[in-house]
Specification:
By secondary structure, this protein is of the alpha/beta class. 22% of the residues lie in helices and 16% in strands.
């Protein structure tokens, strides 16, 4: 987070799963003089069935449903880590749905982008048009 101190915007995570990285960002954010909003985008259904390039080579992706978690799992992990207070919750927005459906509607400025989407299928959604 220190590397983007002079950059305006929010933290965006694509591929939240159970919220491990989200919890790290929330913890680092809580210690900032000016905390940022954190947005997490995930289907919360796990991976879709891989196809095309995601099925080939030694880096073949996992199976349908892999990494499935709920928004409740994320909030529970945050609570266990001591990040369950209202001031932290007010700064976190979880957006459920496929990146191709949800990410284009995000209009905020991004200071830090963490992409952990596992499948090449999602790559076009992460590259500015």
């Amino acid at each position: 987070m220190d590397q983007v101190n002079d950059v305006d915007g929010v933290v965006v995570e694509c591929g939240v799963s159970t919220g491990a990285s989200m919890t790290l960002f929330a913890t680092l954010n809580a210690n900032r003089d000016a905390p940022r909003d954190i947005w997490g985008f995930d289907s919360f259904e796990g991976l879709p069935a891989p196809d095309g390039e995601d099925l080939t080579g030694s880096a073949a992706a996992g199976r349908r449903g892999m990494f499935k978690a709920t928004t409740g799992d994320v909030w529970n992990r945050l609570r266990i880590a001591g990040m369950g207070d209202d001031s932290t919750k007010d700064r976190i927005t979880l957006v459920q749905g496929l990146l191709s459906d949800t990410l284009p509607s995000f209009k905020g400025q991004i200071a830090l982008l963490h992409c952990d989407v596992d499948l090449l299928t999602f790559s076009p959604n992460l590259v500015p048009a």
